[in-house]
Amino acid sequence: MLEGKSAIVTGSSSGIGLGIARAFAAHGADVLLNGFGDAEQIEATRAGLEGEYGVRVRYSPADMSQPCQVREMAEFAASEFGKVDVIVNNAGIQHVAPTEEMPDDKWDAIVAINLSSAFHLIKAVLPGMKARRWGRIINIASAHGLVASPFKAPYVAAKHGLIGLSKAVALETAEFGITSNTICPGYVKTPLVEQQIADQARAHRISPADVVRDVLLVHQARKEFVRIDELAVLALFLASDNSASMTATALAMDGGWTQH
Ligand code: NAD
């Protein structure tokens, strides 16, 4: 489905990003991995994807909070693969606290990583996409890009902003064969959420199972976590030629959460 294409997936050393990178590689795309983690484990993942799917897989340790590193990552991908056809702005962090207690540096980091990095990467790859008249921009926001929850002000603000950024870019680039869309997942059981389960269990003095049922999935009508492979298939569709007319959308995959 993506033979001959090349993609950057930010924050793909773990969780949703890794699932999307794997799906892209499995469908023939060269992929640039990015994100933090154990160097040996990341190299094993990179080499494993390359061996399994016979595509080029590279890794950039670029810190998405640093605009110059975002730009260098885009240049690295273009030099390794010859072009960048697809980007997935997925890297993200979370911090949960009442707004008046939210540390300033957490606000800055969440906005930089979850929102501004997408702007810098889009800006870096657009000239090439426009010149080739083909591009796919996929942004991983959240149900929190569509609705709010308390104690997550920077995350909610950044994810709402990411949807706005995606829509503006979509309108600007629609006549160049470029689409820009946002995926809004409900809760997915990844390291990002496992940390929240532990934190909330401590804060509320309830069991992790009660946190999942009564806090995390309380609005997720299906009462189950969204699966990474479901999100990967949606990203694959958005990256393909089949989605050429779908742009400027924010697609919820949230078990019904945002329709309450
Ligand atoms: P995760 O913690 O498993 O993965 C996050 C990835 O981002 C990791 O690869 C990490 O190394 C990387 N990362 C963090 N800071 C970075 C930085 N400064 N520079 C480069 N990479 C960085 O989390 P996840 O759940 O897979 O989250 C992926 C995306 O999905 C995030 O944007 C998150 O907000 C979003 N999301 C997650 C859920 C969920 O329930 N897990 C729900 C909705 C949206």
From TrEMBL:
NCBIfam families: PHB_DH, PRK12429.1. Its EC number is 1.1.1.30. The keyword Oxidoreductase applies. InterPro entries: 3-OHbutyrate_DH, NAD(P)-bd_dom_sf, Sc_DH/Rdtase_CS, SDR, SDR_fam. It comes from Cupriavidus necator (strain ATCC 17699 / DSM 428 / KCTC 22496 / NCIMB 10442 / H16 / Stanier 337) (Ralstonia eutropha). One of its GO terms (molecular function) is 3-hydroxybutyrate dehydrogenase activity. Keywords: Oxidoreductase. Coiled coil: none annotated. This is 3-hydroxybutyrate dehydrogenase. One of its GO terms (biological process) is monocarboxylic acid metabolic process. Belongs to the short-chain dehydrogenases/reductases (SDR) family.
